[in-house]
Amino acid sequence: MHFKIRAITQEGRVESLDFQALDEVGAREQAAGRGYTVLTLRPVDDLRSLWRRRGERFPVLLFSQELLVLLDAGLSLVESIEALTEKERSPGQRAVLERIVSTLRQGRPLSTALEQFEGVFSPLYIATIRASEKTSDLAPALSRYVAYQNQIDVIRKRLVNASIYPAILISVGGMVTLFLLLYVVPRFSQIYEDRGVDLPLLSKILLFWGQAVEGHATLVVGILALLIGGLWYIARLPAVRAAIEKKLWTLPAVGDKMKIYQLARFYRTIGMLLRGGMPLVAALEMGAQLLHPTLRDRLVLASRAISEGKAISESMERNGLTTPVALRMLNVGEQSGNMGEMMDRIAVFHDEEISRWVDRFTRLFEPLLMAIIGVVIGAIVILMYMPIFELAGSLE
After folding, report:
1. Looking at beta carbons, which pairs linking 141-146 to residues 24 or more positions away fall under 8 Å?
2. Residue 89 exposed, middle or buried by CB count within 10 Å (0-12, 13-18, 19+)
3. DSSP 3-state assignment of 192?
4. What's the number of CA atoms in the CB half-sphere (13 Å) around residue 165?
């Protein structure tokens, strides 16, 4: 963020200063570090600073990877983060690293330093670091987190890549449809109106639209823009998105796959935390944030049963938090005592299942979407040319 500060120098002069920092605390610390006494501090929310703030999200994964390399090279934790601070060019990210170093120099642990940045480092990341501090294995914990995040990103990229082509089809089809409705149809309506041609009902409706656009183009385009913008705004409301998600969960095929996707992320997270030394019940509580509210309520019941001494596989199955494959693998994990690794394997199995389902779905959905777009555009064209066809038939 961009801050305007009025401060007193060590010589007693009052100066106005500009600082880039993550928050007000960081801005005050930067000013104090340069010998200023802050009088007033005001955030500046101009368009440029808002755009910069949006584009300068702290790269937690890259930070973890670079920190891991430096720790493996033999540098201490403070030296490693200082090295990362020196190479950082982004003011906001540099401010985060400087505050972390400052906290570490006060003798406080890394997890405490990260807790200052609630919107930057997730509770899962902080919990992973805190668990590693108890066993003094920060480097392995970072390695596990990097592997975990890379696997999550792979699945997310597959889903995004699968949606790119349908999104392009919908966009192009929408633009072609708007071009026909806003430009071509008004031209045809004017021609038919001048010649007094008798039109079929559907063609009359279409050409009535063309006349409306021809006579009130600005008003029609404005209404369409407001309608599209309003729908976009409504679709982004949390309540609406929650309602849409709830509806998707009720669909037999889609709801099942959404559940499997969430369970795969959940099991991978629990596996990482267990391998990091976190107790099972605490790990389940930490992983609950990844689940849909319905599954989260079931997890509370499962955690209570596990804390009472019941088997993990039995508790998870009874509350609908397993699949047939996951149940068998949980049984094996309980018998072998290697539950963390087994949960990772459950996640890998179901991630591959989701990937295969996405591939099959896109192969079916893309041709269907192309057919729907073709029917819509073709219907508009046929309705425009139908009077010409009828006229040509009457001349035979």
Report:
1. 141/276, 142/64, 142/67, 142/68, 142/71, 143/68, 144/272, 144/275, 144/276, 145/64, 145/272, 146/61, 146/64, 146/65, 146/68
2. exposed
3. helix
4. 15
* Residue 390 in this model has a pLDDT that exceeds 80: no
Mean pLDDT estimate for the chain? 80
Residues belonging to the chain: 396
CA 376 vs CA 29, 163, 369, 385: distances in Å: 61, 21, 11, 15
Degrees to nearest 5, angle at CA 343 with 67 and 113: 30
pLDDT above 70 coverage of the chain, percent:
85
210 closest CA partner among 185, 174, 193, 192: 185
The 10 Å Cβ neighbour count of residue 53 is 15
Between the alpha carbon of residue 339 and those of residues 18, 75, 346, the distances in Å are: 52, 33, 10
Tokens 């505050």 correspond to: 99
Strands (E), the chain: 2-8, 14-20, 37-44
Q: Among 104, 117, 86, 106, which residue's Cα sits nearest to residue 22? A: 117
Q: Are strands 37-44 and 14-20 parallel, antiparallel or unpaired?
A: unpaired
Three-class secondary structure of residue 6 per DSSP: strand
Question: pTM for this one?
Answer: 0.65
Helix (H, G, I), strand (E, B) or coil at 129: helix
- Strand 2-8 versus strand 37-44 pairing type: antiparallel
Q: Which DSSP string do the residues of 70-90 spell out, in sequence order?
A: HHHTT--HHHHHHHHHHH---
